[in-house]
Amino acid sequence: MRACLLLVLTVWLNTKDGSGARSSPCALPPSKWCSSLDSAFQCGVLKQCLESNFTRSHEAAEKVSLGLYYESLCPGCRQFLTLIIFPTWVLLNEIMDVELVPYGNAVERHEGQKYTFQCQHGEPECLGNMIETCVMNKSRNAFQIIYCMESSADVIKSAESCAQIYDPELNWSSIMTCVNGDQGNQLMHLNAVKTASLVPSHQYVPWVTINGKHTEDLQEKAMSSLFTLVCSMYQGPKPEACGGSHRRFKSYCHNV
Ligand SMILES: *[C@@H]1O[C@H](CO)[C@@H](O)[C@H](O)[C@H]1NC(C)=O
Ligand SMILES: *[C@@H]1O[C@H](CO)[C@@H](O)[C@H](O)[C@H]1NC(C)=O
Ligand SMILES: *[C@@H]1O[C@H](CO)[C@@H](O)[C@H](O)[C@H]1NC(C)=O
């Protein structure tokens, strides 16, 4: 009866060309391990990837979506993002989406074809906001990179090495081209528009929306117990991390 996992692996091995998949090293970051059967096998997580794909396909409920309106150098934003939102997302990303909008209390002016921006914590903050905006446009691991930047001693100096760590394939000069060019300018304008269209309009940062809504109660709960809030708002079967009865699919194989 220990057959089932072995069967999966054996079938898998038999579909290989016999060159020995085990010898191919796993050279991918964890976020990419499950992206194909090959990579899952090479990285030694085939079983976990199949399970998590199975779980995902059985959880149809809408994810809880958290919107964070913030500024890259605002101390309270950095604490909330790095100490609460990111760790919660690591545990609950299967039932939770995070949308980051770095802009906050900045002010925009339209000058010719371009927009100019003034940021609450000066030029460096405008640069930090812009780097994070371009990273979100170009990397699938943007949240990890932004977390790394915000949790480091120097948000801006750390940016390139954070990108190298969390998205080795990302071309850093394409980020800087975005930062210094029209694309970044347009994307930052969109952040300004999103921020300006908040209802009610924001009075401070970090400013939180849950499923697009902001109330004082939601803000308070998000900042004091985000994990509990997300677990309680999720409409689907609660994942194990929430302490729910819904267990993840697990394939144990027992001796008889
Ligand atoms: C998991 O699902 C994704 C998206 O449906 C798919 O591309 C990937 O190959 C699957 N991974 C495994 C290990 O089955
Ligand atoms: C990146 O920005 C361009 C506009 O400059 C937009 O068309 C595209 O959809 C964005 N991509 C992502 C992944 O946000
Ligand atoms: C990286 O991006 C820059 C600027 O967009 C581009 O000129 C260069 O060809 C890219 N390099 C690679 C290896 O894709």
Task: Give a description of the structure.
Dimer; disulfide-linked. Belongs to the GILT family. There is one protein chain. Strands 2-1-5 form a three-stranded mixed beta sheet, sandwiched between helices. A two-stranded antiparallel ribbon has the order 3-4. Helix 4 crosses helix 6 and helix 5 crosses helix 8 (172-180). It has 256 residues and is mainly α. Helix content is 49%, strand content 11%. The longest helix is centred in the first third of the chain and has 18 residues, at 75-92. It has two domains: 1-14 and 29-60 and 248-256, no CATH class; 64-233, Glutaredoxin (3-Layer(aba) Sandwich). Bound molecules: 2-acetamido-2-deoxy-beta-D-glucopyranose (3 copies). One 2-acetamido-2-deoxy-beta-D-glucopyranose (NAG) is lined by residues 34, 36-37, 40, 49-50, 53.
Structural class by helix and strand composition: mainly alpha
| Proportion in β-strands | 5-15%
CATH architecture of the largest domain: 3-Layer(aba) Sandwich
How many E strands? 5
* Structural domains: how many: 2
Topology-level CATH name of the largest domain: Glutaredoxin
State the shape.
Answer: globular
Rg is 21 Å
Q: How many helix segments?
A: 10
Order of helices and strands: HHHEHEEEHHHHHEH
Q: Which sheet architecture does the biggest sheet show?
A: 3 strands, mixed
The ligands bound in this entry are: 2-acetamido-2-deoxy-beta-D-glucopyranose
Question: What's the N-to-C terminus distance?
Answer: 6 Å
Which CATH C-level class of the largest domain is it?
Alpha Beta
